[in-house]
Amino acid sequence: MSESQHPRWRTGDIVAMGLAAALVVGAGGTGLVAAARAIEDSTAAADTTTTQSDTASTTQGPTTQLYGGRGSGGPTGGYGGASSGTTTATLDTTAATAEQSVGVVVIDTVLGYESAEAAGTGLILTADGRILTNNHVVEGATSITVTVVSTGLDYTAEVVGTDATEDIAVLELVDASGLAVADLDTADLDTADLDTSGDVTVGAAVTGVGNAGGTGTLTAAAGTVLSLEQAITAQDSDGSDAEDLTGLIEVDADIESGESGGPLYDADGEVIGITTAASSGSTDITGYAIPIEDALEIVAAIDAAVAAGADTDTDTDTDTDTITVGYPAFLGIGLGTGQSALVAGVIADTPAAAIGLAAGDTITAVDGAAVTTATALSTALAGHDPGDTVTIDWADAAGAAHTASATLIAGPAG
């Protein structure tokens, strides 16, 4: 892992248990692009802006510093800021076995607009390289590299679709369809053994496997199922961008940052969940995983949306209003926190920069339709695809009116 690269993680509160414990899962970089995504992405209301945090590399029997718990906010929100203190926990982990590594990938992302890198974990769903991971693992990514752990082969990955509210993303490896060919000296991609029976029980033995610390080496953390159908509010380590997740499996395994998107195995070695969060603030770490059957429902909804060529779907029981297919259209601005669509900043080498938008400008219309709020601007841009040309009207800080056409580009993932 490079010096600027960090494992993906988040913090949050355990809602169902009425506790105020920090939840840890990923780390990325804050910056102007986060504000731009929040305005331009059709899933803006559910986006989780990530923050950077150094986490110690993990080996067998290490100690690592985790962020302490946050303020004593209630179970529905109103949380305090992240504590500046840390808790040192001795982690009960081992190196993952070859069997546990089958079907698991390491995900490395470049957050090009944020001058940062990040890392996480994923699962291979199909032999031609369909990958399942958490949305926050790839959120903000401008390029994604996936390493198949069992073979050591690296692939470029593209985003098939994401659902930020359910924290699920589907990736596709580029040119992964001929991996069984002899001249590659490898077999087909191994597919993780998925348990979709839904018969997970409290007290059952489990093992979480993932790219702990973002080092590129898989570790395994054994534990037991503490409870089912748990609800948590996950958010950034600075206490912002809360996101509710429900129906989770709660385990007492020492899940670490960087393991987001990795498998939670049962005693038979079948995947029963996708790791998405873990508590910190004490010497006891509690992990949370999305049940595999729930994750696969979202995958099916994403696939249906891709097939339909739209961001909505009526053929499944899953609400797909929050699904984004591929990469969102991107203008390249960050907006202020006020009532109007005031531009807080412009990202270099984006359509916004090309047409001359600048900090202090106020966008007043898109394609002739008036926009008076950030939400209205989000709605106006959400229906467009990369490559679409839109007409932007704005007033500069001096009040002068401007109009220009901007060709939207593919924005960062998530």
Automatic annotation (TrEMBL):
Keywords: Hydrolase, Protease
Positions of the PDZ domain: 326-375
Biased composition (Low complexity): 43-60
GO molecular function ontology, one term from the record: serine-type endopeptidase activity
Segments for region (Disordered): 43-85
Entry keyword Protein biosynthesis: no
Source domain of life: Bacteria
Record InterPro entries: Chloro_Bact_Ser_Proteases, PDZ, PDZ_sf, Peptidase_S1_PA, Peptidase_S1_PA_chymotrypsin, Peptidase_S1C
GO biological process: proteolysis
Biased composition annotated in UniProt, kind: Gly residues: 68-83
Family: Belongs to the peptidase S1C family.
Name of the protein this chain belongs to: PDZ domain-containing protein
Originating organism: Cryobacterium lactosi
Highest classification ranks of the organism: Bacteria, Bacillati, Actinomycetota, Actinomycetes, Micrococcales
